[in-house]
Predict the structure.
Amino acid sequence: RRRGLAASGRPGCGVPGSSGEKERHLVGTRRRGSRCRSARESRDDGNEASTAGEANARRIAIVGAGFAGVATAYHVFRQVADAHAEATADGNDRMVAPVRVTLIDEKRVAGGASGVAAGLLHPYTPRGKIIWRGTEGVAATLELVEAAENAERAMEATAMEATAERDEVNGEEKKKTRPTVSPRENRGRAIARRAGVCRPARSLKQARDLAKHAPASFEAGGRGVTVSAEELRRLIPGMDVPPEVLEATKKRPSRRSLEDDDDDDDASLLARPLTRADRKAASAKRWREKNAPVTSALHIPEGLVLDTTRYLASLWDAARLLASSGETPEGCSATMEIRTVASIAGDPALNEPGAYDAVVIACGAAAGSVQELQGDVLPTQLQGGHVVELVPVGDGKENGWPDDAPGVLGSPYIAPLGPERLLVGTTKEYGASVADARRAGEVPLGNIEDDEKEDAPRAPTPKPTDRVTYSRLEIASRASAAARELVASASAAYPPLALENGAWRVDVVRYGVRANPPRSNLGSLPLVGRISAASDDAADADTKKKKKLVVRGRARRARAGVPRHARRHRGRRGAQRRRRARPPRAQVRPGREANGG
């Protein structure tokens, strides 16, 4: 292993004892003198851990191998490693219990919508503002990207060595294997393409919004800068700038011209004649709108484009390597199971005695396939979408995307995975179902370069509240229509992508479904919570029953456990409220009429 790591050029991987510095071992740092465990102690390769670790290990099952599931698995081992390092520094090596994580998915790592996503990483909204906790989220994601890149280099280095070694265990020879590289689809040149991203202004309003919010966003931690039309075309040669945006960046109207402009139109819109103050206020408003700062694009140099399938597969490798390294306690393991979980309570493997201490559901839009989450348990709206992957025709060096050109944000976006492959998306298709979410991935389609006939049958566009199920022919037809729509929209912003130019062609069309959470004042935030078990439901029902008893009557309040002094005060307040609510009545003395006779 050290020979392989040394051949890869990684520092600190020489002969033991040749350096007093800390060694770098696969992913992370291990102290000199600590024993490096191989992956034979991991269940990922089908071998048993030590007896002590087996008895004390905490077991966690994670259903879903996408962005949330794989990151959860890695963070579990990262926290265990940090706790183990702290305990080892204090001289107590047995304080931290090992953790055994089982990642469950019905396809593979990044087999769902996470593998379809473009992976455009940046902290900005379409208006140029910073997303809530956006800078912190980008920083945390960059740490995961670094861990995935380190794991990919380590796995490539160890793959050059022999795949098995001989080790004598308990008097017999036993094969000692290492974690193998996870199956992946490398679409780009690297996991992350660090050439930045750019959001061109596609309307005059967006040009004003980007210029307005860019300074405040820069002070909030973003590094986006506004660029002119000429600078945008230098960043991305051939990029189109809308005429209204281009005209607004060149021409600045004077205040006098605005005062004399459109006075008659404003007067016709009002019920009363315009006064001098009205004309002055309207002129000032028009001057602020037309003289507001305008920019052609927002360039975000710290943004990057991820190859999502490659990133997630490497991040899972990082979790496995961390579990089998000397940074974690004895008995840690990371395993992968390809199967379907239809119910948490009804799954035999999840409900074996002592099988798992916790079960994490992280399968996104497919969470509705789990019985406990069916129906309206989660307040999410499923939205489907197609993306296309474009490749250059002929020599990619002539027609490919420039090496130093950033990715393009917007609707549609253009995510360059490399000079020879662009990911363009996405359509917004409402009415998706859980079944649609489970069929995420590559979609077969016909020849989309042919012009669409006017009399060709088209599938109706569903409404956001509909639930639609399509046949295979309709799925292929919708994928072809989505590909044509995406290429046409992308070529409007970047004309070289037009199919009639013959420079690019559609290689793959993919489909995925996302679960949109409700919008709040902070944006659409992820949903995190606890799934109630049957005993929890019974306890909640009992609590609701007790609350319903607290309605009226001392006996019911006594059974609900209300203190005596609280019952007395409640009764007095209620009587006072009733007396105040009564209408006033005439006071009648005995022996006299009510009219005062």
Remarks:
- Residues 134-159 form the longest helix (26 residues).
- The radius of gyration is 32 Å.
- Residues 125 and 287 are 27 Å apart (CA to CA).
